[in-house]
């Protein structure tokens, strides 16, 4: 498909390279934006028990709404990346935050399960999908030619930072004041971030007459039309290459073993063993602390070591930790559980920087959209386990079988990562080859 790439006449001329590059300011705004948006991602695991008690909905029903949210989060991401190319980052992200606020606020008045699916599953899912990691990948690709792994790690860690900020607050609200004030807090937080995005974020370095950090100046390309068509076209091209399926499969397991499992079901699972909700949510927040360190470190390592080997190590270690988790759940927090929190937290989204690096390595200029599709598989995996975990709890009375299955899947993801070929080999040709 032909794309228009001529420069806009109004593009400012390049200026002298500043001592402090504007790219770092844009990265900071992106970081704060993702933190502010992370509130909505922190809430589902806290809602399962309150909604079950108030409305008598089964955990499988509530898990289904969460699974719709997670699936749409992933399926929207590649189209959001293309929409950012067409309409600009600011417009897409500001609109997404507004939709998130609307969906979260409407849940306050819901009375039926289908409304939970509509408001939280569909509206918040669509909005959060446009705020997905493709946002961080797009900002990194446009504004940075150097230090991309480090910046990717920092921006990815923003979600964990948001979890750290919001989980204790939201769990306290749910425990002491009910789930509705927590939903309102999420809505207001999403709205509060919109002015920062609109006033401070810029779509491209050429908008302010700069070259990307560590790169050479290039005029801003004209908007790319046919955003949806381009997203689908890129998918069909990428689907003809082996690395895409290996990356997508491994990342689906990544989503199943993080967002779908721990973020959704850890708090109710710990509560099943007698642990207070606030204590369990506090452990998730601590996971977020070490997630920040682990993800930034992973970005640093991705700039220096093979991303394939890094992914294999990350998935293998995560699988081992999940196999031990059923033995660590107890009414109170014991030292072995703290060890799990630290160990698992360092590995939570450490997989993102090497996965983005491999997408960039294989798919070049289309890497952000390709990563959007890989992220879609991540969220489909998360959605499957969010639903299956709730059903398993209803059927077996515990989550043990889910922890063991997730651990085994992580071993498979480690093997898939190791067999990804390098670009130029028969099964690892670049997308444009």
Automatic annotation (TrEMBL):
It is found in: Cell membrane. CDD domains: MFS_YcxA_like (cd17355). One of its GO terms (molecular function) is transmembrane transporter activity. SUPFAM superfamilies: MFS general substrate transporter. It is a multi-pass membrane protein. It holds the Pfam family MFS_1. One of its GO terms (cellular component) is plasma membrane. The chain crosses the membrane at residues 23-48, 60-80, 92-112, 118-137, 149-170, 182-201, 244-262, 282-301, 313-331, 337-358, 370-389, 401-420. InterPro entries: MFS (IPR011701), MFS_dom (IPR020846), MFS_trans_sf (IPR036259), Proton-linked_MCT (IPR050327). It comes from Streptomyces termitum. PANTHER family: EG:103B4.3 PROTEIN-RELATED, MONOCARBOXYLATE TRANSPORTER. This is MFS transporter. Residues 25-425 form the Major facilitator superfamily (MFS) profile domain. Keywords: Membrane, Transmembrane, Transmembrane helix. The keyword Membrane applies. Its main location: membrane.
């Amino acid at each position: 498909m032909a794309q228009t790439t001529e420069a806009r006449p109004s593009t400012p001329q390049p200026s002298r390279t500043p001592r402090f590059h504007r790219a770092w300011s844009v990265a900071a705004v992106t970081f704060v934006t993702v933190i502010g948006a992370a509130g909505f991602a922190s809430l589902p695991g806290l809602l399962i028990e309150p909604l079950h008690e108030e409305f008598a909905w089964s955990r499988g029903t509530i898990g289904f709404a969460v699974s719709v949210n997670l699936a749409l989060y992933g399926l929207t991401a590649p189209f959001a990346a293309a929409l950012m190319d067409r309409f600009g980052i600011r417009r897409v992200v500001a609109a997404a935050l507004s939709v998130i606020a609307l969906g979260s606020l409407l849940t306050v008045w819901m009375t039926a399960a289908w409304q939970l699916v509509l408001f939280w599953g569909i509206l918040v899912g669509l909005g959060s999908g446009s705020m997905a990691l493709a946002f961080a990948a797009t900002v990194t690709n446009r504004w940075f030619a150097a230090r991309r792994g480090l910046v990717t790690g920092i921006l990815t860690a923003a979600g964990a930072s948001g979890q750290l900020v919001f989980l204790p607050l939201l769990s306290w609200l749910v425990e002491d004041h009910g789930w509705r004030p927590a939903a309102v807090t999420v809505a207001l937080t999403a709205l509060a971030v919109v002015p920062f995005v609109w006033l401070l974020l810029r779509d491209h370095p050429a908008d302010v007459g700069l070259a990307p950090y560590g790169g050479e100046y290039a005029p801003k390309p004209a908007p790319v039309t046919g955003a949806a068509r381009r997203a689908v076209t890129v998918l069909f091209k990428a689907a003809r290459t082996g690395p895409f399926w290996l990356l997508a499969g491994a990342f689906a397991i990544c989503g199943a073993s993080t967002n779908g499992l721990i973020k959704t079901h850890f708090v109710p699972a710990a509560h099943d063993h007698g642990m207070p909700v606030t204590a369990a949510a506090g452990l998730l927040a601590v996971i977020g602390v070490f997630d920040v360190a682990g993800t930034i470190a992973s970005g640093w390592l991705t700039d220096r070591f093979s991303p394939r080997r890094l992914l294999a190590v990350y998935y293998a270690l995560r699988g081992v930790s999940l196999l031990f988790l059923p033995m660590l759940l107890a009414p109170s927090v014991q030292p072995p559980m703290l060890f799990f929190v630290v160990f698992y937290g360092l590995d939570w989204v450490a997989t993102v920087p090497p996965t983005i690096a491999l997408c960039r390595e294989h798919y070049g200029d289309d890497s952000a959209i390709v990563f959007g599709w890989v992220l879609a598989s991540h969220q489909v995996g998360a959605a499957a386990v969010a639903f299956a975990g709730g059903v398993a709890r209803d059927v077996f009375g515990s989550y043990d079988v889910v922890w063991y299955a997730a651990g085994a899947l992580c071993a498979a993801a480690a093997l898939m990562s190791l067999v990804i070929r390098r670009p130029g080999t028969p099964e690892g040709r670049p997308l444009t080859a």
